[in-house]
Amino acid sequence: MKKIMITGALGQIGSELTTMLRSKYGENNVIATDIREDESGSLGNGPFEVLDVTDAGQMHEIAKKYQADTIMHLAALLSAKAENNPQLAWNLNMGGLVNALEVARDLNTQFFTPSSIGAFGPSTPKENTPQDTIQRPTTMYGVNKVSGELLCDYYFQRFGVDTRGVRFPGLISYVTKPGGGTTDYAVEVYYEALKNGKYTSYIGEGTHMDMMYMPDAVNAIVQLMEADASKLEHRNAFNVSAMSAAPEDFEKAIQKHIPEFKMDYDVDPVRQKIAESWPNAIDSSAAKDEWGFDPKYDIHKMTEDMLQQLKVRV
Ligand code: AKB
């Protein structure tokens, strides 16, 4: 049986991944950690530890105590927050990652950490962005993500750590809101549509970015971690996307369910600049070929589910 330790378990990905892995592998086999207590008890009854990922000793201690055989390192600052505080982002995103990789090396565990479409930059091909291409990001978050991809590949090649990763697009979920990302608008829009029937987008009309619904994202993590290592030509990190969408695409999809819904714009220059430096649509074919990535939700199926789920929550 697996013993999986998750950092950043109370975050947007962590909260759903922890629940999903606990139902798959058993509550006590998934050790959730986060910088803050799970005050609302949202993660259930399995093991939980408060962990600051910049504390290497504490991370090692917890992984050893529970005999973790897999580390899923999610704790990180997202793109817009990282741009506001680049030094903190470097220390947290890179310091946390190298600590987690060292624990994985010492305890011989499997390792997952997400990269992002933020690992690309303005000189990357914008359409059908290839798996292997130019990566010269212009944000601190992107610099962290490219460095992280290289570091994970290095730990695999140099020390034999079984590192695997994906380049996540904007993730949309009704369970936990994201915080400090550039793609957050694509979550906010659903809450506002239900609450107020309108939404003011900080990302401009016509700005396309890749997106994915959270159930597809957590399934992708499990699928990649269970994939036959001999089939993996790439490791860190696979392009994965389920849709390319601009704000007006969300407006139209929501209007099918809430006809009076209206979107207007008040563009935030910082986040707009980040969005414009990222691809419009990435090519996920390496993930499909090497481990069977197969997302189930397009924008319409996702919108129907998001609105249905949020109706009882908002
Ligand atoms: C962000 O917007 O920072 C994240 C991401 C695409 O990595 N959602």
Automatic annotation (TrEMBL):
Pfam families: Epimerase (PF01370). GO terms for molecular function: L-threonine 3-dehydrogenase activity. This is UDP-glucose 4-epimerase. Belongs to the NAD(P)-dependent epimerase/dehydratase family. GO terms for biological process: L-threonine catabolic process. Coiled coil: none annotated. It comes from Halalkalibacillus sediminis. SUPFAM superfamilies: NAD(P)-binding Rossmann-fold domains. Residues 4-240 form the NAD-dependent epimerase/dehydratase domain. InterPro entries: Epimerase_deHydtase, NAD(P)-bd_dom_sf, NAD(P)_epim/dehydratase.
